[in-house]
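HOLO CASE FILE
Compound: S-adenosylmethionine
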Amino acid sequence: MRTEVLSPKSQHDVQLNNSVELNPDHIMQTATAFWSSKVLLTAVEFDLFTVLDQTAMTAEQLGKKLGLHPRGIYDFFDALVASGFLERQGDGPSGKYKNTPNSSAFLNKNSRLYIGGMPEMLNNRLFGFWNNLGEALKTGQPQNEIKHNGKPIFEELYSDEVRLGQFLDAMTGFQAANFQILGEKFHFENYTAVSDIGGALALLSRIIARQHPHLQFNSLDLPQVLPLAQEQIEKDGLTDRITATGGDFFADDFPKSDVITMGNILHDWNLQNKKILIKKAYDALPEGGVLIAIENLIDDARRENLFGMLMSLNMLIEFGDAFDYSGQDFRDWCKEAGFKHFEMIHLAGPSSAAIAYK
Ligand SMILES: C[S@@+](CC[C@H](N)C(=O)[O-])C[C@H]1O[C@@H](n2cnc3c(N)ncnc32)[C@H](O)[C@@H]1O
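Model generated. Tokens follow.
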């Protein structure tokens, strides 16, 4: 009997005859997603959305203002129109480009809602480092600035003032909406004092202090961060409500409080250090006190929160042995430390608050 060898084309046909719909679009969209990503990141790098604050420009005017060669201007600006980051009134050389409401609010430096710090860091640091994802997966080793010098990442990042500022701004863009929603959804009225461990620019404290005027805050972060946090607290007129403390959350005691928050802290560390921080929180809290971790919690079955899993790969790139985790992981670790009850509150997009009660 003759065995028929199926060519790739006829295999494809067999699938179609069994009425399985085949479509390569998703593969190609994901494969080329870095093109779109780099267009947006480059627009942020050029500060294009700030240049277009309250104004509309033709391609030629905008290209000149940004110092661009004429070859790419229509492709670049129209790609931003097609991907929804710019609007264009009219076509051709007289068409005028302007910000969309979202670009104007979040990518324009004159807006107090600016979240471009994260795109800036993605562009300046992570875009290049992610090119070595394969090596990270094979070796389990970080691929960022510490790849060749083996220094602790925060020591390396904070040794350069520009990078320090950039990193802290990036965090702000990530978490503002989460902290706002946490302040709305969590029953802070039952508590009096909050310690934010690894509080960076004290953003959590500054947002939740405005929502809950009875609360006092202590925002603990490394000494290099302290003056920058204090500057923000003063700017917001909250010096009587928020104390910023410089210290090391592994070496120093946590400030006394009945709520301890950790925003994107546990995911920066390996399992052993995660458990040390959870145990320190447990020991510092009174009976009935509460630990809240604000992270991109991965769903327990690890099938849905793509962003959480990509963030965890980002932790591989940044730290090597650090990783993101699920609500169930958090419950297990906190139970081991002695916490009794648990709750998960969904925040913005892929983020949640994992809550453990002592
Ligand atoms: C990923 S950022 C998170 C910042 C902020 N909590 C948020 O949610 O955006 C981690 C923070 O931990 C701080 N940090 C790292 N190691 C620390 C240490 N040993 N002691 C105190 N803070 C530390 C960093 O300076 C940084 O602000």
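CASE NOTES: The two ends are 73 Å apart (CA to CA). The mean pLDDT is 93.
CLOSED: yes
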